Amino acid sequence: MAATQEALEDDFTVVIGSRAYVLDGENDADAKDIKIDNLSVSAHGKELLKNASVNISLGKRYGLVGPNGMGKSTLLKLLAWRKIPVPRNIDVVLVDQEVDGDDRTALEAVVSANEELVTLRQEVASLQDASISADEDEGDEDEVGENLSELYKKLQLMGSDAAEAEASKILHGLGFTNSMQARPTRSFSGGWRMRISLARALFVRPTLFLLDEPTNHLDLRAVLWLEEYLCRRKKTLVVVSHDREFLNTVCTDIIHLHDMKLHLYCGNFNDFEVRYKQHLNKMNKKFEIYDKQIKASKRSGSRAQQEKVKDRAKFAVAMEASKNRGKGKVDEDAPAPEAPQIWRDYAVEFHFPEPTELTTPLLQLIGVSFGYPNREDFKLSNVDVGIDMGTCVAIVGPSGAGKSTLLNLLAGDLVPSEGEVRRSQKMRIGRYSQHFVDLLTMDETPVQYLLRLHPDQVGSSKQEAVCSELEKFGLPSHNHLTPIGKLSGGQKARVVFTSISMSKPHILLLDEPTNHLDMQSIDALADALDEFTGGVVLVSHDSRLLSRVSEIWFVENGTVETFHGSFEEYKDEVVKELRAEVDD
């Protein structure tokens, strides 16, 4: 791990301004906050932060937001690696990768995260062995006994007796059954190992907790449990997430990474959106005034007048920055202020084509049962569900209950052992799998891939038609001829959504479609599903998306039942159960 970290650290250039708080000395022993002042960061030659400043206060929960690729994950890494000065008394844990798979059980892996606890237990075991061999020497036996007594006291203060119970409780909240907790970590998929990494961090309870997209690997119930758990913590949290409802529930403050600066907003994400729009309008109004003054001075032909306008604008920017820092006067050591700039908001739109009308029902499972040959503990039985035009369904239930299996049965990727599947002959299905990367051809460009899958494109330039479709889903033109293997997860997802749209589907079957999307794209997808007149079946942990559905199928214990109520009512029921568990 260390070698990998060192290699990654070499890719970054970090510069802290002259007024940075240096927190490596004795004076930081009682520091509670992290003060970032005039921070500049470059990665792979790209400038991510420029003279950025923000304070991270003890006990607050910050959501770090902004478009993809702007440096949010980099900022978390720099805090975790202490490239940004962090007081020595503040312990930091970053959760951004899965735990290594080995023969330890999931429960053992979580408990072992508390290295001090593990070391003390090993010392006790060693001294107990020593006490057996010291039976014949009374002096040695007394010394061993005293040492053991001291270690027992330390273990008691650390809550050693309750450690396994606490670790088990956290794992259960994240979806691990008792049998799963006893399985070796190497037997779990990457998504479940990410949950183990998250459980380890929750177990050690660091003063500064850094989370990078924690909900991507969780089902809805685990997301709601994590929200409840984090809200009860009294430590500091910085989380990167594109889950709007998660940020609304958990965060007390929002840090917005915009234009290489860090802007702090009090309140949750909804509060931030209101204040950000006000701030955006204010900044653009200042730019309009400045732009008019510059143009007027240019018409006058006076270079001195132009410089005067620029200096006055820069002074105003410097004064406002100083007021925000609580000084009330221009800081002579601060970086030179810049003239007002126009603030451009990032936006994207998704659209699926209007499907042709087909007679109903489009898709039905009648008395369907299914089980995997190598899993005697799993089976779906007597499933009766149907999809028509205009149907919008969410599949919910515990992890491993069979949500994705049900989706695969609807898609025809799995064949039932019993029952009947009825499909309209002319029906087309748009399928989004959470493992969509396995279906992409990495050495093809998006244009090549889509032309191969959809050769029926019309017009004088088929390539232009495909490029037009890709742009509709927010893939920049310079990526259209880039090999898919070199695209980010979010960019690959846009290629998949473009392909789905080009297939002109009657039904959309979507399995965790938000995992690789930024917040603006998730909002765009939600709006696109609202306007889509075909059928939609959705498995997701994103409450914003799930709140749009008209029907809920609940999967548990091998059955599929319709939940008679809205998504908010279902969510309220789950939250009540989780609060009772957390309180227990």
UniProtKB/TrEMBL annotation:
Coiled coil ranges: none
SUPFAM superfamilies: P-loop containing nucleoside triphosphate hydrolases (SSF52540)
Keyword Protease among record annotations: no
InterPro entries: AAA+_ATPase, ABC_transporter-like_ATP-bd, ABC_transporter-like_CS, ABCF, P-loop_NTPase
Pfam families given in the database record: ABC_tran
Entries under Gene3D superfamilies matching the protein: P-loop containing nucleotide triphosphate hydrolases
Residue ranges constituting the ABC transporter domain according to the UniProt record: 34-284, 363-582
Keyword hit for Repeat: yes
Protein name (Swiss-Prot/TrEMBL): ABC transporter domain-containing protein
Annotated source species: Penstemon davidsonii
Organism superkingdom: Eukaryota
Keyword terms of this UniProt record: ATP-binding, Nucleotide-binding, Repeat
Segments passing through the bilayer: none
